UniProtKB/TrEMBL annotation:
Protein family membership: Belongs to the NADH dehydrogenase family.
One Pfam family matching this protein: Pyr_redox_2
InterPro entries: FAD/NAD-bd_sf (IPR036188), FAD/NAD-binding_dom (IPR023753), NADH-Q_oxidoreductase (IPR051169)
Protein name, entry field: FAD-dependent oxidoreductase
Keyword Oxidoreductase: yes
Keyword hit for Nucleotide-binding: no
Amino acid sequence: MKHRIAVLGAGYAGANAAGRLARRLQPADTEITVVNADPDFVERVRLHQLATGQELKHRPLADVFAGTGIVLKIARVATVDADAKTVLLEDGSDLAYDTLVYALGSTAADQGVPGVADHAENVAGKAGALRLRDRLTALPAGGTVLVTGGGLTGIEAVTEIAESRPDLDVALAVRGGLGDWLSEKGRRHLTRVMSRLGVRIHDHTDVTEITGTHALTADGRKIPAEITVWTAGFAAHPIAAATTLRTDPAGRVMVDASMRSLSHPDVYAIGDAALAQGAGDKPLRMSCASGIPMAWHAADTIAAHLTARPLPETTIGYTLQCISLGRHDALVQRVTPDDRAKPSALTGRPAARVKQLICTAAAWSTANPTLKLPTRRHPTR
C-alpha cells in the first residue's frame, strides 16, 4: 500500500515541500496530495505590488505540478483531525494521510485593536491586496492613506503606495523607531527614501483604534486615514489551534529541529504555520526566507524516514534582509545567521536589482518544484 502524504497549502513552503518529496520518493511507493484554496500560486512577497495596480505573473498550480505525479485538490481545509489522521475539506470530502505537511501560512492579525476588522485593509493575502487595489484606485487626489506597522511588510507597502500614487497623502505609523533593527547605513537610507517619497512618519506611535476616517493613538492624536493598511501583526492560520496539535499562543505548530510536530510525529509544519528554532536558538521569523529552507529540510527528513536513510541535520539561518522601496530602490541589509543587522548594506538601484533577482528566483523555484537537487529517488522501506 502506498504511503499517503498530504500537503496543506501551496505557497512558497508547501509547493517546495511537495516538489522536493516528489523528487526524492518513488511514485510507486508514495502518493502525494496537495490541497490549496486558490488555483494559482500566489507570490505573497509581491502583494504590495498587486495592491498598487501592478500585474503579477499568472502561475496556475495545475501547471506547477504537471508531470510530477502530485495530486492537486483545489479546496479549502475545514478541520484537521490529527489523531485520526484525516483532513476534512469544506466541500464535505475528507483526505486520509500517513504523513501530513501543514503549510497553511498566516493571516493578518488585528492584535485586539478596535476597528481593524471593520475598517482596515491588508496585504496578507491576494483577496486583501485586490480589495486594497480597488480602494486605492477609487481614492481621489489628496486622499489620506495610513500604513500601520514598521516591519518589512509595512515599509514595502507604504513606499509602493507613495511611489505609485504621489498625489495621495501617505503616512506610516511605527510603534518604535523607523527601521530601528537596521544598521546605521540602512536607517539613513530608509529615512532618505521616505522623505523623497513624501511619506509622513509617525514613529513611537501606538495605534489604539481604527475608524473609517482616522486612526487614534495612545497619546490622544488623530491621524487622518481614509484608507488604513494594517501590517502590524500576523498570526498563523487558525485551523492548527483548533486541533490537538501543540501550538503556541499565535497558533503556530510547535516543531523540533526537523520541522516535526512536538505532539504528533506524523505531522510536519513549515513556513509561517510553524514555530521553529533557527540559528542562535531564535524563532524563525514569518518570511519566504524561512519558509523555503524549512520546506526543504522537512521534505528531506520525511524522505529519510521513509527510505531508512540517515536523517539530515541543518540549522536554518539568514544572510540578508531584502526590502523593496518602490520599483527602483531597495535596501539589502546583511545580517548574522540569527538575523541581527551587520554594518554593511546595499542600497539604491543595485539593491533593487538584487531584490528583484531574489524574488524571481524564489518564485521560479516554487513554480518549478521538481527541477532542483536532489535528483535521485529512493524506494520506501
